[in-house]
Design brief:
It comes from Pipistrellus kuhlii. This protein has 763 residues and is an alpha+beta fold. It contains 23 helices and 32 strands.
């Protein structure tokens, strides 16, 4: 079967030549370079490779996996091989999520250009595909996998194998009936439209048909009034439901006559439910929708820890790729550990470890290029300075010369402010966070700076961090003063620190009496947890006027993460994460920052911005917005296999809903499992949660493959804030462990929020 996208695919000389195939060098390291034959398949959507022309080929990647294509000079690895290859012959394929880049070197500049232009053309096409085109691509991919002999047709034997690949267990007789019904040509094979009809028969949504019938008088269509009733009664759309109904019909009704008559067919109804408008995530929360004119300390800030590392904390590789990935996923605070390097050039790496080293000036150049590609709002460069006087001067020089106008080196108007500026005021600016020789007031008063000794608390080096972790865990050393770091600071570097001066933390009273609003402290996760437990309200009040940064324990040498929720509950703004490590903790972080345009800034709830707040994160009392949340988990669609290599293994899915928030709200409930059905499992079970502080709650929908012998296996997840959740019948589009789309895998749920706790609601 030709691709269902055939005729709509970009037609260009580059794409045609890619489909003929080319020999290129695949580069993994300076020493690992192998010739391979790469070929774009006829479907125009997948690239295969083999050791040689005519050799046994295997799938390398799908175009939908690709985020972008970079030229050779943009690749850290290819630049290191500049003496061996012309950089214009090289290019890098960058994938979504955390999948490593693919570096390739063509035999000529012309051949490299064919792949660079052709791939980018196809990537742009996939990025702009509509819902139907995405489904067509998905079906084409499955047909390619099921058509084992690649003859463009599918026999019943191949269909049976395909059903297993698609997580469908079906009696052979029933499968054959569906096969025969779709085989209108009576050729004993399925091709093209026949395969589409077979798929439609497989994916009939009985639960959606029943819902449609509940509101449709004739069972064939929803009139405008019937659709308005549905939007008001079930989707809780309110007074604007009439206007919304007309817009949705125009958007999702496939037939022109239906649009003219303002009616919605079953196909249109299903398209709406599966769209962004029918998504659990409120589309009004997708763009920047929050007030961005408040002081910086009123926002949660997407923050990366040891950004240069793409692996573990002891032997991992340092790379500018860590900065590119962090910035492109919306991080607005990145970390740089700078040390003296050879030839007078400062280097970046994790001190006292075997991690590799990169030049500081390359990090700054990367920052200049990528800082504002995802978001215009300010980037904070958390500078951990371990350099001597001379190389500190070089640091200041690189920051000033490379960043130019992007670097904020003085107050916005040249006057002393009374509070931190807003993200809006700091658009397209990079702020240096670090030690400072004197106060901002003295900076503005004096024209000439003098050298002096500075004392401040930063994240300790790994060696001393182990010691501090042990001290914090030891009750005998509870009252010991924390280790102070003292260093001679270069005035030119000190002058670049404006609104984010780092200072030591002693206690909250000391901070109130001695520190200014532009001074901030860093806390290890252990220290921050203890402060929240012992003096939670004081921490909330501290964060209402000053910035705080929390960083992972030095004991997390595997680059694991803590749950950021506990620190967000106390209003901590910069909760640093090892973004290279996927898992529950990063799901929660990604979930919070998915809103507000993914700009990296999320406005804290009002009770965490109030300088008179009485909020206790550990013991919230007098809830004024408490609610009961009812989640009916109805069904699942096209769930992926846990292990795609095991054709016969079909998943037994269950759904777990997890709530993360203040301690009393944190809970999890799950459905029973459905045996041997990952294609269209049905649960129809309702889970009930009670929330004291819903404004802080994060919801995580987790789909697992039940395994009675061991731990259940991960299938997919989706995490979002309670404040961004839509009520009614909604689809949840699942993500992988890596946070990438598992399209078209989804859950179908019904969400109901009721004011008050359950006892109050029932009474």
């Amino acid at each position: 079967m030709a691709s269902l996208l055939q005729g709509r695919l970009p037609s260009s000389q580059e794409v045609l030549l890619m489909q003929k195939g080319m020999m290129m060098r695949k580069v993994r390291t300076k020493n690992w370079k192998r010739l391979r034959y790469f070929k774009l398949q006829e479907d125009g959507m997948t690239v295969w490779h083999a050791r040689q022309v005519g050799g046994r080929a295997k799938a390398t990647f799908s175009i939908s996996d690709v985020e972008t294509v970079r030229k050779g000079h943009e690749s850290e690895l290819l630049r290191s091989l500049e003496e061996e290859f012309n950089l214009e012959q090289g290019f890098t394929i960058v994938f979504h999520g955390r999948r490593p880049n693919l570096d390739l070197v063509a035999n000529s500049v012309e051949e490299a250009q064919i792949w660079i232009k052709g791939l980018q053309l196809l990537v742009d096409f996939v990025t702009n595909m509509d819902q139907k085109e995405r489904l067509d691509q998905w079906l084409s991919d499955w047909f390619q996998r099921g058509d084992k002999n690649q003859d463009g047709r599918m026999s019943f034997h191949e269909v049976q194998r395909l059903l297993l690949l698609m997580n469908v267990e079906m009696e052979e007789e029933h499968a054959f009936q569906l096969f025969q019904a779709a085989d209108t040509s009576q050729s004993d094979t399925l091709e093209g439209e026949e395969f589409i009809e077979f798929y439609k028969a497989l994916t009939k949504r009985i639960e959606v048909q029943e819902l449609f019938g509940n509101f449709s008088a004739d069972g064939q269509k929803l009139t405008l009034l019937e659709f308005v009733d549905f939007l008001q009664e079930e989707q809780k759309e309110g007074e604007h439901a009439s206007d919304l109904a007309l817009a949705l019909i125009d958007r999702y009704e496939p037939s022109e006559s239906g649009k003219l008559r303002h009616v919605l067919s079953m196909d249109g109804f299903l398209s709406y439910l599966y769209s962004k408008d029918g998504d659990i995530f409120n589309p009004s929360c997708l763009p920047v929708y929050q007030d961005m004119t408040q002081p910086l300390n009123h926002y949660y800030i997407n923050t990366s820890h040891n950004t240069y590392l793409v692996g573990d904390q002891l032997c991992g590789r340092s790379s500018v790729e860590g900065y590119i990935r962090a910035l492109k996923r919306g991080c607005r605070c990145v970390e740089v550990d700078v040390w003296d390097g050879p030839n007078g050039e400062p280097v970046v790496y994790h001190g006292h470890t075997l991690t590799s080293r990169i030049l500081f000036k390359e990090v700054v150049a990367t920052l200049k290029k990528y800082a504002f590609q995802t978001s215009d709002y300010p980037v904070i460069l958390s500078l951990e300075n371990h350099c001597t006087w001379e190389q500190q001067g070089i640091i200041a020089q690189h920051l000033t010369e490379i960043l130019g106008e992007q670097l904020l080196s003085t107050t916005l108007d040249g006057h002393l402010p009374t509070q931190l500026p807003s993200p809006e005021e700091l658009r397209k600016k990079i702020l240096v966070k670090g030690k400072k020789l004197q106060t901002l007031e003295e900076d503005l008063e004096e024209e000439e700076e003098t050298e002096s000794e500075v004392e401040g608390e930063e994240e300790p080096e790994l060696e001393s961090q182990f010691e501090s972790e042990i001290q914090e865990l030891s009750p005998r050393s509870k009252d010991k003063n924390e280790k102070k770091s003292k260093a001679i600071l270069c005035p030119s570097l000190s002058a670049l620190v404006v609104y984010t001066k780092t200072v030591s933390f002693y206690n909250f009273t000391h901070s109130r009496e001695h520190y200014r609003f532009y001074e901030l402290s860093s806390f290890s996760e252990t220290k921050a947890k203890n402060l929240i437990k012992e003096t939670g309200n004081e921490f909330v009040l501290h964060n209402a006027w000053q910035l705080s940064r929390v960083y992972p324990s030095g004991l997390r040498t595997d680059s694991s993460n803590y749950n950021p929720q506990e620190f967000w509950n106390a209003g901590c703004q910069m909760v640093a994460m090892n973004v290279q490590t996927a898992g529950l903790e990063m799901d929660i972080c990604d979930g919070l920052f998915r809103q507000n345009g993914g700009c990296g800034y999320v406005l804290k709830p009002d009770f965490l911005r109030d300088s008179q707040s009485s909020f206790q994160p550990e013991r919230p009392i007098s809830p004024f917005k408490a609610c009961t949340l009812l989640i009916q988990v109805i069904s699942g669609q096209q769930l992926p296999k846990v292990d795609s290599t095991k054709e016969a293994a079909i998943v037994d899915p269950l759904v777990r809903v997890e709530i993360f928030g203040v301690r009393p709200d944190t809970a999890r409930l799950e459905t029973s499992y459905v045996e041997n059905n990952g294609f269209n499992p049905y649960w129809g079970q309702t889970l009930c949660f009670q929330l004291l502080v819903p404004e802080l709650a994060m919801l995580r929908f987790l789909v697992l493959d039940y395994n009675w012998r061991s731990r259940n296996d991960f299938i997919g997840q989706y995490t979002l804030p309670w404040t961004c959740m839509q009520q009614g019948y909604r689809h949840i589009h699942l993500l992988s462990k890596d946070g990438t789309s598992l399209h078209p895998a989804s859950l179908f749920v019904h969400i109901c929020m009721q004011e008050g706790l359950r006892e109050e609601v029932e009474s």
